[in-house]
Design goal:
There is one protein chain. Strands 3-4-6-5-7-8-13-14 form an eight-stranded mixed β-sheet, with helices on both faces. The protein has a two-stranded antiparallel ribbon with strand order 1-2. A hairpin with a 2-residue loop joins strand 11 and strand 12. It folds into two domains: 76 residues, no CATH class; 240 residues, Rossmann fold (3-Layer(aba) Sandwich), CATH 3.40.50. By secondary structure, the protein is of the alpha/beta class.
């Protein structure tokens, strides 16, 4: 029987920046800050070296950029080289200043996440289970065990009062339970994926069954979907449905370079994993930055132009706080993910095992819903679609959203939340 625990405030760094010694500490992000500043500086500095090549037409261009490059070359032909160089220098300086202004404005912004926490009903090690149904008296409907990624904080699903999928579902009568993995402790640093799934996650499911007396739907978001799927296969009789949100499966689909980089990283990082027992947050963030090295630069240049009091500014800060509040990954899990998933494509190849058994989605006969955002740049849609096509009972929803926007974006409620609610209520009706 799961052991109930008393509620306490989370000890994660999501409240970073709270008052200490009478002053408000600056945020750390965007992490890793040195990497993002170096990318910007090196990119803009390279413009000086490229200017003579642009003028004489010797720079190679992608086909879609050639018309713009030709127009720029024509304009440069009418400018004195020293004048053009000086103008370029001023523009570089202007962008550096704007980027630093954006970073500084973010680090000093007064917003701090301050939502009343959901009660904790179970804990084992650093893992706990939060009952969001307790926040809404009418949330007595189908229970949902929500499983987030191991490398991001769970509260992206409860980001703000306006963008909280879990509180919204609870207000609509669903009873969500959120697994909060937190950062690995001494015990968790030795964990494999089997320890998390066949151990902690099954215990969390037992806690939901004890609290509700009903078979829940299990919902996995991103990496959380790859934890939820084996749980569904192992505990089919204790579940009423499975939801996979932006869950990868075929790691070599539309992501050849990304997979090769991850596999290479597994070998290069092996000594670090041996020493620390975990993959640090900043290394994980650097790997994600490799998907689009200029993304953070573009974001903070745009942020520098926003009114500090505008709702878009507050929304930006709330999301960036979550992005920069990552969690380290236990070393054995990091090896399974980087070398196994990305390197060898073990899930799609039929070689991924949990507790000695192959994770085979074709054996699953549970009602399932796959939500695959069309604009996902973190999990290629083709990778997620491969999993839905392998599950015989899977329905597919393809919203016009991104990987994170599907949960907290301006149209998330319309494109994702409402269709999800409809599907969950259908499962409740079938269970009657």
């Amino acid at each position: 029987m799961p052991k109930a625990v008393t509620q306490r405030e989370p000890d994660s760094p999501e409240r970073q920046g709270e008052r200490q010694g009478g002053r408000r500490e600056l945020r750390q992000g965007p992490r890793p800050l040195g990497l993002h500043l170096a990318v910007a500086a090196l990119t803009w500095a390279s413009s000086r070296a490229a200017l003579p090549l642009l003028r004489n037409g010797s720079l190679p261009w992608k086909a879609d950029l050639r018309p713009a490059a030709a127009a720029l070359q024509k304009n440069l032909a009418n400018l004195d080289p020293e004048t053009a160089s000086a103008a370029l220098g001023r523009q570089i300086h202007k962008r550096h200043t704007a980027l630093l202004d954006g970073v500084t404005a973010y680090r000093r912004h007064p917003y701090r996440r301050d939502l009343p926490p959901a009660p904790e009903i179970w804990r084992e090690g650093t893992t706990r289970l939060l009952d969001y149904g307790a926040l809404s008296p009418g949330a007595a409907g189908v229970p949902v065990l929500v499983v987030p990624s191991l490398i991001n904080r769970a509260y992206v699903l409860d980001l703000t009062a306006e963008t909280s999928l879990l509180r919204w579902l609870a207000a609509k009568g669903i009873r969500p339970f959120l697994v909060d993995w937190d950062r690995p402790g001494a015990e968790e640093r030795r964990f494999t994926l089997t320890d998390y799934i066949a151990g902690r996650l099954e215990s969390a499911l037992d806690a939901v069954l004890a609290a509700t007396g009903q078979r829940p739907v299990v919902l996995g978001y991103c990496m959380g979907g790859l934890l939820a799927l084996p749980l569904a296969l192992r505990r089919r009789g204790d579940l009423s449905g499975l939801v996979l949100m932006a869950t990868p499966w075929d790691f070599h689909a539309d992501a050849g370079a990304q997979s090769a980089q991850a596999a290479s990283a597994a070998m290069l990082l092996s000594p670090l994993l041996d020493t620390l027992g975990e993959l640090p947050v900043d290394i994980i963030q650097a790997l994600f930055a490799g998907l689009d090295p200029q993304l953070v630069v573009r974001k903070f240049l745009a942020f520098a132009r926003l009114d500090p009091s505008h709702r878009k500014t507050v929304a930006f800060v709330a999301l960036e706080d979550w992005l920069n509040d990552g969690v380290a990954l236990a070393a054995p899990v990091a090896r399974e993910c980087l070398a196994g998933w990305y390197g060898e494509n073990t899930p799609a190849a039929g070689h991924w095992r949990i507790a000695g058994k192959v994770v085979d989605p074709e054996r699953l006969d549970l009602p399932s819903l796959g939500i695959i955002p069309a604009g996902d740049r973190i999990v290629p849609p083709a990778s997620a679609l491969a999993l839905c096509e392998a599950i015989p009972t899977a329905e597919v929803l393809r919203p016009a959203a991104g990987h994170i926007g599907m949960v907290v974006g301006g149209r998330a409620a319309e494109l994702v939340w409402q269709p999800l609610l409809t599907w969950l209520k259908a499962r409740a009706a079938e269970a009657r």
